[in-house]
Records
---
Amino acid sequence: MSDQPIIRRRQVKTGISDERVNNAKTQSQYQPYKDAAWGFINHWYPALFSEELKEDEVEGIQICGIPIALRRVDGKIYALKDQCLHRGVRLSEKPMCFNKKTISCWYHGFTFDLEDGNLSTIVANPDDKLIGTTGITSYPVQEVAGMIFVFVREDDFPLDEVPPLADDLPFRFPENSERFPHPLWPASPSLLDENAIALGMHRTGYGNWRIACENGFDNAHILVHKDNSIVHVNEWVLPLGILPASDDCITVVEDEKGPKGMMQWLFTDKWQPVLENEELGLKVDGVNGRFYRTSVVLPGVLMVENWPGEHMVQYEWYVPVTDDVHEYWEVIVRVCNTPEELEKHKYRFDRVYKPLALHGFNDCDIYAREAMQNFYADGSGWDDEQLVATDISPITWRKLSSRWNRGIAKPGRGVDGAVKDTSLRFKRTADGIGPQYKVIKIVEE
Ligand code: FES
Ligand SMILES: [Fe+2]
């Protein structure tokens, strides 16, 4: 270690107190975050869209370095650790289910109860003394608005202490309308509202989940969206950036019950939109105000209210898969009370929001996140970055998530991506298959 101060930066005059400066003392307040390369464990994460798991199907995914197999039986979804306790293969690679209650390992037949993961029999060793004495971890599952959520827990996290899904979802309205008034747009819908529908997509992001997450609510990064079609076709006024103008520009929410996170008071006098940089001759044109507001809650869920249109909200998750791969979820939530409304919304989603917002606009976020990855890959980026006033947002997030996460995920063991230089990985790369979120099923000729 050198005795140099960790961060050297210029002083900024924006009304932000010295408390906000990212010095060694500040950094020590978010050491748990710096340690969370594999994610925060013991939280709810999206696993699949409902339509990705049809009746009797089995899919394998990986979250926070934990392999998870999902199976739907009679509509209900079960989730078990996707790692056979015999010799460690993934059950989902070649799903083998002889009844509605169990899943069997395709290799030597260890058979697990879907409800609790207990070893209920072994195909060719039905009297073995191991039966009934051991098992694999099971994970609570909840399906809402077309999405499947899994509570990704440590093996010994007690099932009776699993918090409600609502604790790991964005702030809800109208119950928070008084606390976070929103005069510029209607109350934002929530995934948990009646008749809410989640339309969206998820894709694999190459980079650490924290880099991706911080990009979502970074008020200077909107520069990357300067040339996006959706902005220009709508003649939106999208600022070059938004500067904090007061110490209370962010409210940290740490209520005993409910989500822990932060709300940014965008488009109030607590933040100053930057519309011009004289030195560079840059000026924002556009005639239509596009007001939105970003907030983030644990374990890393972004909410963009009033985006990409009225009466809707965009949620994003950056689900850790390994320490350098995450699954990027982009979901638009809207309440559709009639089949006609739903059909109209789906039509617009397919033709406008998906191509222009979730792709076009958010594709820029993806390349920006990938461009940061090498700087942070070995962990030294957290010490070498030199932050400015707008970075109050990630700093506040790092501190609050360090305080309120329910556990730091350990590096994955025996899972894809934990060891990066295996011959298996090279073989897949040579076959044109990069790191993936979903398990690739074994194909028999
Ligand atoms: S590895 Fe699963 S039964 Fe042997
Ligand atoms: Fe963005």
Note: Confidence is low (pLDDT under 50) at residues 7-13.
---
Amino acid sequence: MAAHITAPTKCLCGHIDLFSFSSPGMSGRRQDRLYANSTLCGDCSAHIRDLVKPQAKGFYKITLPQLVGRPRSVSWANSLRVAHIRSLGPIMARLKCSTDPVAVVALAVFEMLFKITDANFWLSGKDQAFGAGHWVVSEIEHLMRKRDLSMHENSRSAYCYWKAINPAVIHQARQEASALLSSPPVSTGESPAVQPSQAQPPAGGTSVFL
Ligand SMILES: [Zn+2]
């Protein structure tokens, strides 16, 4: 039986969070640690989920590229994409108005998603809620990592799609996000729950988050 150990672990954002180590063996323990080190802490994840909560109103102007695929696939994928922009557009409009650096990254993630022209991506992800907090958290983690890890690869990921098709799109998303990511965190007063009460600042550096 695997021993469950909960230990403070440094996360991708630089914050320390409690992480449960449960995989058996030395290599399991190592994998667990790698996972913890390459994902965001609970507070940062919660902050992102809060930023991308469904919005009732709002319009975001975006030019959708022509989809590529068989005619029937394109037509179906197009309607799926329209449904996604209906639900995500208001969220993107809200992100656009925010001065929060994390909102800028979240918006870059959605921009990256809507650049995808392969009809099959939209068809295979027809049940995917791209606005779901965990999807956005995972995409932001992809953008933040210094190197890609196979354990985080996901066929529903816009990041993984562009990594295979055209990494220039990822560079652009990182650039859009970098100006604000590298500046000190901005306190907008909009989301008081943002400030972590227990998270410790990273040693020897400024966290891009919170
Ligand atoms: Zn954090």
Note: The longest strand covers residues 5-10.
